[in-house]
Amino acid sequence: MVEARRRRRDTKLYINENLAGYGFMAPTILVLGIFIVLPILYAVFLSLHKVRLLGGIKYEFIGFRNFTNLVEDDRVWIALRNTIEYVAIVVPSQTILALILAVTLNSGIRGKNWWRILYFLPTVTSSAVLTLIFMWIYNSNGLLNNFLAFLGLPTYNWLGDPSVALKGIMLMNIWSTAPFFMVIYLAALEDIPRSLYEAAELDGANPWQQILHITIPMLRPVTFFVLAMGIIGTFQLFDQSYIFSNGNGGPNNATLTVVLLIYQAVFRNLQMGYGSAIAFLLAIVIIVTTVLQRRFFGEKM
């Protein structure tokens, strides 16, 4: 009898604890459900329908036709190729630059706090403002071409030449996003025990050997985080491409990205179902890329 009473008490306590836990979690679950789960489910619904917006919203079920049209659309593959090229160049470049800046500022140089502020300014500046500034710099008679001409190097039509238009966006974003990851690296560098470097110095290791065998291995988890965030962010390139090309992805689709193509499908062509299908393609690419990064680099980094 005593044992049965104890079991009932423990069961009641267990239920009350769980109810209390779910009660505390309820606001978060509600917010996630409204702003994440429901939009995803609605996007799935839209991707399987043809949506008519004029004259009242009407849904026509078409199955996977949006996805088959996506496969046959040349502009989708152009946008995907541009986006992958952008990711493949920008992510490693901004990561390496951020690490170099962080190691330099952490080395005890004079006025390092002022240098941190100076480097971090592009990150807190509006992306649209930065893009407009760089459009002025990239102008045919702009600062960059004048500088290249001064050095005796060839100049480019950065805004109108399909071969360099996307690279202009790459340069701008590497410069503006590396400081954000620099701050993350700086925080991680300060957590590395100084005793490791002192022991390495006693063993005769030079600064480069210390970076190679202590700093980089100790930063592996942070580097994985930086790479993952960089990949997710760069795959969603939109605003710079939109401003550079006035929303067209030009010249000759050179700056057309997947997110810009989604914008064109939904807001210009009013193809909400087709735009949702492209969005799911982008989501799949980001998930697969992140999983592969985790698989091949997560444990090593």
Automatic annotation (TrEMBL):
InterPro entries: ABC_transporter_permease (IPR051393), MetI-like (IPR000515), MetI-like_sf (IPR035906). The chain crosses the membrane at residues 21-45, 86-105, 117-137, 171-188, 218-238, 273-292. It is a multi-pass membrane protein. It comes from the Bacteria. Its main location: membrane. Pfam families: BPD_transp_1 (PF00528). Residues 80-293 form the ABC transmembrane type-1 domain. SUPFAM superfamilies: MetI-like (SSF161098). GO terms for cellular component: plasma membrane. Keywords: Cell membrane, Membrane, Transmembrane, Transmembrane helix, Transport. It is found in: Cell membrane. The keyword Cell cycle does not apply. Coiled coil: none annotated. GO terms for biological process: transmembrane transport. Belongs to the binding-protein-dependent transport system permease family. This is Sugar ABC transporter permease. It comes from Brunnivagina elsteri CCALA 953.
